[in-house]
Specification:
434 Repressor (Amino-terminal Domain); 12 strands; about 45% helix; Rossmann fold; six-stranded mixed sheet; 3 domains; elongated; alpha/beta
Length: about 325
């Protein structure tokens, strides 16, 4: 049977409030009382109730991770880093899948029912109404992988996607490709919009024009393969920049089925540098997004906001880099 706080108080010869203070972080209790309570708790096998503690402190130690792209393996890395970092800081994760949810107020109400202390939104495909709704409700919120808006009061941790688009165009150009195309992620994603803008800006500066720009319906292997098969039926292309590694892998397999060899007849540049990108079947040259830095910084920032040591919005952008493999021709 579960040992109660009352039983520990009786065994230690102290009040129930003394037992409660002993197991409440930061509460005042004398060293003598603490020793008596801890000894009694050990003898009885008592473990304090986290639910009861949250009611007393008005803190649940829960942080919600909100995402809507759970089928992409990159999210496994995100979730692993998120949970490990939280647990080291004494917090617990609450995973929220918004893959079919579009109502920010409904989502906010669900999270408030769990009384989360803070929220990390880990996606670029949710509309700005989501983080803004949480902020207006007074819940500390960080938007990881988001787009910086000068009018937003929400902290953003991510990358400069426009620069990544420019980097992609320059990378293909430097390897001698001229008939290039962009196979981006969902058109509604802010990251897609920014990478497209940067890609078109740099190609214009280089004096070339992409032969095609297409958008995958989602960040998935199947959508990449489907979009690529259609493109190859309509266009002749030397190389593609794909807005996600998984999309790129689908596109690569579509090209192989079309009878093209990689990188001799067609080259591919991905984005993210997920673990699968290094598999020998793909050996994908890709733009590495520092997912680890983004998640660790997001957790540290939201915890600081909860604890009151960080106020106002703070935007952190991390640099990306090229991971060289064999899906593109080497530099001349």
């Amino acid at each position: 049977m579960t040992v109660t706080l009352k039983e520990v108080a009786a065994r230690a010869g102290v009040s129930r409030s003394a037992v409660s203070r002993t197991f409440t972080e930061g509460a005042s209790v004398s060293a003598k009382t603490r020793q008596k309570v801890e000894e009694a708790a050990e003898e009885l096998g008592y473990r304090p109730s986290l639910i009861a503690r949250s009611l007393a402190t008005n803190r649940t130690k829960l942080i919600g991770l909100v995402a809507n792209n759970f089928r992409n393996p990159v999210f496994l890395e995100v979730f692993d880093l998120f949970t490990q970092t939280l647990q080291r800081r004494g917090f617990r994760p609450l995973l929220v899948n918004l893959s079919t949810e579009t109502d920010s107020e409904k989502s906010l109400e669900m999270l408030r029912q769990y009384r989360v202390d803070g929220i990390i939104i880990a996606t670029s495909t949710l509309p700005p109404t989501f983080p803004n709704a949480f902020r207006k409700a007074g819940v500390p919120v960080i938007h990881a992988f988001g787009k910086i808006h000068t009018s937003s009061g929400v902290s953003i941790v991510g990358i400069d996607n426009r620069h990544c688009g420019e980097m992609a165009a320059q990378t293909l150009f430097d390897r001698g490709y001229r008939n290039i195309a962009l196979l981006a992620g969902p058109q509604s994603a802010t990251s897609t919009q920014d990478r497209l803008e940067g890609f078109l800006k740099r190609t214009s500066e280089l004096g070339i024009e992409p032969v095609d720009v297409r958008f995958a319906s989602e960040y998935s292997y199947a959508s990449g393969k489907e979009a690529m098969a259609t493109l190859l039926d309509e266009r002749t292309v030397e190389a593609l920049f794909c807005g996600d590694d998984l999309i790129c892998m689908g596109a690569m397999d579509a090209a192989r089925e079309y009878g093209l060899s990689i990188p001799e007849e067609i080259g591919f540049l991905g984005f993210n540098d997920m673990n699968m990108a290094s598999w020998s079947a793909y050996d994908l040259t890709t733009i590495r997004q520092p997912v680890r830095d983004i998640i660790l910084s997001s957790v540290e920032l939201v915890v600081a906001m909860i604890e009151g040591s960080e106020e106002g919005n703070k935007n952190l952008l991390f640099p990306c880099s090229i991971t060289e493999r064999s899906s593109l021709k080497p530099l001349p």
